[in-house]
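COMPLEX REQUEST
Ligand: iron/sulfur cluster
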Amino acid sequence: MKVFLLSQGTCNGCELEFHACFAPRYGAGFEKAESIEQAEVVVVTGCGTEKASVSARREFKKSWGKPVLVGNCAINGGIFRCRHPRIRGKIKVVGCPPRPEQIIAAIEEATKCPK
Ligand code: SF4
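STATUS: Structure written out below.
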């Protein structure tokens, strides 16, 4: 399974936890996709800037993968309290940042449910 990381502008905390999923300690059973078109799951993080979220939404339209919202920023604006439109998804990983175990479980859940 291939997973693509799509950032809408963040503090990088959620990205670091996502990359930690691939460390030997966690041993994620998936790999990173080179491009969003290849991905079965799209991990969406952050909402830091209006410009970044606009380009992230444009990029997401190219994807057929299921979105997994990682971190409070992607879910509800988090500490930035940003109000511009964000990518929506049913699978959400709450935390600031969430732990790698939570992210791995959510990605595995995404493969089982419809988009
Ligand atoms: S949820 Fe927390 S760790 Fe993740 S991008 Fe937002 S502020 Fe950073």
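REMARKS: The radius of gyration is 13 Å. The beta strands are 2-7, 31-32, 41-45, 66-70, 91-93.
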